[in-house]
Amino acid sequence: MMRLFTKDWFQYLVATVVILGITGVMLMLSSNQPNTSNIISAYQHEDYALPFKINNPTNTYFAPKDFKEISGLTHSTDDLFYIVDDDHGDLFYYDLKSEKIIKEVDFGKNDDYEGVTLNDEYIFIVKSNGDIFFIDKNTGKVDKVETYLSKRNNIEGICYDTSSNSLLLACKGKPENKGFSPGTRCVYQFDLSSRKLKEQPFLQIVVKDEMKNLKALNLNYNFVTKINYNTRITRYSPSGIDIDPITGDIYIVSNRGKLLTVFDKEKNLKGVYFLSEKIFGQPEGLTFDEDGNLYISNEARSTKANILQFERLDKIVKPKL
User: Fold this and answer.
1) Do 234 and 224 meet the contact criterion of CB atoms below 8 Å apart?
2) What is the pTM of this model?
């Protein structure tokens, strides 16, 4: 009986030492990943370069103390942004410089609102179940349009596409249509002329299957980091979307996996970027201003709810009038 106990104890001790040893090695190897703010770790097309230092924000703007979530945002004019949160049927006018909510507009019952965008006539707000609210800029009248999407699809982002006069809806959940391979995430297109959602997805995304033309950038490969990269890519689920007004590229951020993906006008994947978890607590919203500067909002998690600003590196000099 004593021998059996001693043998079991010895095996337990050996197993513990091995586990601790492996854990130490994993921590040491994972610490070798690039973490300086000027280094971008990514898979990127050889003919493309992201025009932002994505892990080095130019400025950080905080939401008011009691404002816990910025689930969606869009740039209006100058320093004014429209933002929504998960729980309230209110549109908030946020002044970037003063970091204050300067106005609230009640447009609906408290529910799960995830994204906001606009064009010349309307402000559009989307619920997680696919309902879209139209707020007339001139009259303030609110209309609601129901789509065939549902909470199962979990719509997280919305943006206006000027080239097609449509809205793009990014889904964190499973596609509505059947027959897609596991892990597929979709972006659907809502035609504003007919006020109907098109049947076929605008984008069908399986990141790991679309990376064959991309090259590794600043990625330290070993058995630990490779698992980490692959796991983050597998977890990809859109949480915010917008279109770069300078290039027409489509940017999609994913809180799960902390990733930023960029697609060109032809819907080809140009880059997959690993976001710093120290900077991006919970990235949920994404928008551009008219000069092409990028803004990503974070819900209150590791820090207060905030908006990160990234000034454009390839600035376009506008001609003087």
Assistant:
1) no
2) 0.87
